[in-house]
Amino acid sequence: MPRPLPPMTALRAFEMTARHRSVQRAAEALNVTPSAVSHQLRSLETALGVTLLRHVNRQLVLTEAGQILLPGLGDGFARIEAALTALDASNQTGVLTVSMLSTFAVRWFIPRLPRFQKAHPEIQVHVSTGMRTVDFVREGIDAGIRYGRGGWPGLRCDRLLGETIVPVCSPALARGEPALRHPADLARHTLLISEARPDDWQLWLSGAGAADIQPAHTALFETTNFALAAAASGAGVAIVARELVEEELALGRLVAPFDRALPREDAYYLVSPEVRAGEPKIAAFRDWLLREIAPADG
Length: 298
Fold this sequence. Notes:
By secondary structure, the protein is α/β, with parallel strands linked by helices. The chain has eleven helices and ten strands. The chain has helices spanning 8-20, 23-30, 34-48, 64-92, 102-119, 136-139, 171-175, 200-207, 224-232, 246-251, 280-297; strands at residues 53-56, 59-62, 94-100, 123-129, 143-148, 155-168, 190-194, 217-221, 237-241, 262-273.
């Protein structure tokens, strides 16, 4: 059975006093009073049942027991300091693991990632995608981009991006027959539905005054990204946050056949455990994201 260890403060007080051969200088190094150091020394000697230091000709010297204890303590504290220094460095540099939805990753985050890499070459980003809620501690996740309304317990939540949902399709489908001029025309087309966002179509149709429409066909996809790929190929009409397809709309790879867009109450948030939110690499990532969002929101 491991021997119970004396208090760390007492061990540190002895190590500092032995190193400086002075209670006064040890107190200054530890930023405490000399009486506090003396108290810690007495408590350590009582706990160990030995005398560690004594005065000889007005000088503080180590006893035999003190000489045995000091090298191990010095090495131990040096290792602790080195580990803490390495930990601090890893918080500022190294790997930053971020979880997010795959559609957000592909459509918004990854196209902007080179700008973060250029601004922070010391931070290596690992992207983890999925729809489930992650366990930050158990899974080693530093931060995440979540969709919802914020306010998740234990997490710092920074709102990044709101969204408005719109139907999109290929230019050829929009121009073809049957034409897509009014929401009612969707009754003669295939609606592409994402399992991740199954209610978006009904919400948009209700807002457009076309809640009773029965489409000719529907096709179900695991993610919105898959539904968008099908839409671009002409397989039907998908529903998506306009903010995630701005590039495709600008380049004409996709078109929004109707003027109506429906704002959603949910938004994308950067989240991180409150106890880690101030770590340099997480703070750098947050600041960069908010700068990226600012032009779109402004």
